[in-house]
């Protein structure tokens, strides 16, 4: 069963987000009270480039299976430590195509826009963490494992224990690319 195992929010910019009992998703904006909440881009480096671009990174999701993998490599990373709002288990987030919709709990619904491009701030949590969430396939293509980004289609409260239902897009499916 696919489920939410933790939710996290931080009103300040920074890498880690503390776990909370529930987060409220607001359609078209993201996680209420989070530093990345808004219709337009909120990531500081992207705001500097173009503050008017749409916010395709309203919600950050990471699969708990990545945390398990990192623990096997000696890293101590808990839900929220890598800046995600929603930590999932039982859904292969990285394999989902662009445009996949996830129903979270009773009401919330998000659309996956792309892969998170990990940044050097991860090394502030643990030296080498950024490289640990990057890999290469047999062709040498970079694989980003630090989760996916999404926009909020339908608002609602999300909490640990909520179920996740995956709705694949119809028609041609495109692999996720960094956003």
Tell me briefly what this model is.
With 179 residues, the chain is α+β, with helices and mostly antiparallel strands.
Write structural notes for this entry.
With 179 residues, the chain is an alpha+beta fold. It has one domain (3-167): Beta Barrel (M1 Pyruvate Kinase, Domain 3), CATH 2.40.33. Helix content is 13%, strand content 32%. It is built from four helices and 13 strands. It has helices at residues 44-49, 64-72, 122-125, 129-132, and strands spanning 3-8, 19-20, 22-26, 30-31, 59-63, 86-89, 101-104, 108-115, 134-136, 142-144, 148-154, 156-159, 164-167. It has an eight-stranded mixed β-sheet. A hairpin with a 5-residue loop joins strand 9 (134-136) and strand 10 (142-144). The longest helix has 9 residues, at 64-72. The radius of gyration is 15 Å and the shape is globular. The model has no long low-confidence stretch (mean pLDDT 95).
Q: What name goes with the CATH superfamily? A: PK beta-barrel domain-like
> How large is the share of residues in beta strands?
25-35%
Please report the distance between the alpha carbons of the first and last residues: 28 Å
What would CATH call the architecture?
A: Beta Barrel
* C-alpha geometry: globular
What is the fold-level CATH name, i.e. the topology?
A: M1 Pyruvate Kinase, Domain 3
Number of helical runs? Answer: 4
Total strands: 13
> Helicity, in percent?
10-25%
Strand order of the largest sheet: 2-1-6-5-11-8-7-13
- Mean pLDDT, rounded to whole units? 95
- As residue ranges, the low-confidence spans are none
In the CATH scheme, the class would be Mainly Beta
The computed structural class is alpha+beta
| Element-level helix/strand string | EEEEHEHEEEHHEEEEE
* Biggest sheet details: 8 strands, mixed
- Counting structural domains, the number is 1
Radius of gyration: 15 Å
